[in-house]
Amino acid sequence: MSLARKIILIAGLSLILAGVTFMIIKSEMGANEAILPSSEDSATTTNEDGCAVDQISAGLDHYLVLKDDGTVWAWGDNSEGQLGTSNLLSQANPTQITPLKNIKLIDAGNKFSLALSSEGTLWVWGQNASGNIEGEEKKYLTPVKINITDVVDAAVGETFTLAVKGDGSVWILGKYDGNGSSVLREILGLTNIKAVSANSTPLFLTNSGEVWEWKPGTTVKKIQGLSDVAYIEGANDEVSLAVKSDKTVWGWGRNSFGELALAEKDFATDIPVQIKGLDGVTKISVGANFISALTSDNSVLAWGISDFKNNDKSITTPTKLDYAGEVRDIDAGPQGLICIKTDDTIWTNSVLQNNPRQAKFTQENCQ
Questions:
Q1: Which residue windows are transmembrane per the record (predicted)?
Q2: By the 8 A CB rule, do 223 and 272 touch?
Q3: Pick from 113, 178, 165, 110: which is nearest to 142 by CA?
Q4: What is the DSSP string of 224-266?
């Protein structure tokens, strides 16, 4: 969900694979090609075929899906083993990850992935160049069980993994703020934490609805002027956000691409400001200098940069995206937005262009 600022859609070459059209997408950093669904996809995923989807997560160049039976499925680029399929073959269609079962939470990141079980077991796999997985700094092609128990929430950052234990303590694996290792260590100064979120900068939510932040070069600190928070979304390089219990959205950081829904692009603040033009928000997600919001009436709105090739083209007012139906979950990634509609179909939306396209999730893969 992070690392999105350096991703540019530079190739629009399509190919036919397994009867479905896919787009070739490359990063400007020379990363391997990733197979992602194009606008011509037409498969369906419904409750009738046993493919009810609970969660979706968008990584740098791969996707994770959590089904209602607790299984995890992945597709996209697999150059670092981030799909967890025991090989390095990229997948055009969702492929089940074993031995994962009874999973309640998933998170896809910078060529590595995370899953948390209902029993509090934490699994991580894929790239480990920064020590974000316990063990040697190598590619892990299948899920690795992390040596921590009673985990109630977890998240991946750009180069690190976060875990919250039932006692309210927070633990980190990997590199952050210039140091780190593949040894679990507790983040000091945090207590009574119930949830974490991490892109470039970690956020921490307490049981009492307060938010704490850990910026590079500093210690953890409480965000002033913010209380009664129900949901947090960790910062990219620009902005952090929170949804309060009254379903209003608040943000802080820089407004370089209109992420704070303000016209003044040089505006920056450490004090949260309310994002105007939103009502009844239940979830927010930070992408490549754009923000998306899901509302209680199952609508999706987005704002911020709308064109990677033209950074001056920004939408500073939350704008509704037309998905020709209701949406019940969202996640923002480098290439854009991915959604689960109420009929359990999975759709992607390229950046903020209003062109939703359906992802391939075949019935035979859901058995």
A1: 7-25
A2: yes
A3: 113
A4: TT--SEEEEE-B-SSEEEEEETTS-EEEEEE-TTSTTS-S-TT
Tell which residue, 74, 73, 60, 75, has the closest CA to residue 26: 60
Across 99-104, average pLDDT: 96
Mind listing the domains of the chain with CATH numbers?
A: 4-366 (2.130.10.30)
Is residue 360 a contact partner of residue 37, using CB atoms and an 8 Å limit? yes
Residues 6+ apart with CB under 8 A from 321: 300, 301, 302, 337, 349, 352, 354, 356
Report the distance separating Cα 253 and Cα 290, nearest Å: 13
pLDDT at residue 31, rounded to an integer = 31
CA dist 84 and 138 (Å) reads 14
Question: pLDDT tier at 182 (50, 70, 90 boundaries)?
Answer: confident
Q: Which DSSP string corresponds to 255-307?
A: -TTSTTS-S-TT-EEEEEEE-TT--SEEEEEE-SSEEEEEETTS-EEEEEE--
Distance of CA 177 to the CA centre of its chain: 21
Distance in angstroms (rounded) separating the CA atoms of residues 94 and 78: 12
Which element (helix H / strand E) includes 4? none
Pairing type for strands 112-117 and 103-108 reads antiparallel
pLDDT digits (tens, 9 = 90+) for 301-350: 988 875 544 455 678 889 888 766 789 999 988 767 888 988 888 887 66
Paired residues of 191 in beta bridges: none
99 preceded by a cis bond (ω within 30 of 0): yes
| Structure tokens belonging to residue 123 | 């699994």
What is the helix (H) or strand (E) element at residue 22, kind and residue range? strand 20-25
Residue 280 pLDDT exceeds 60: yes
Distance CA 282, CA 276 (A): 15
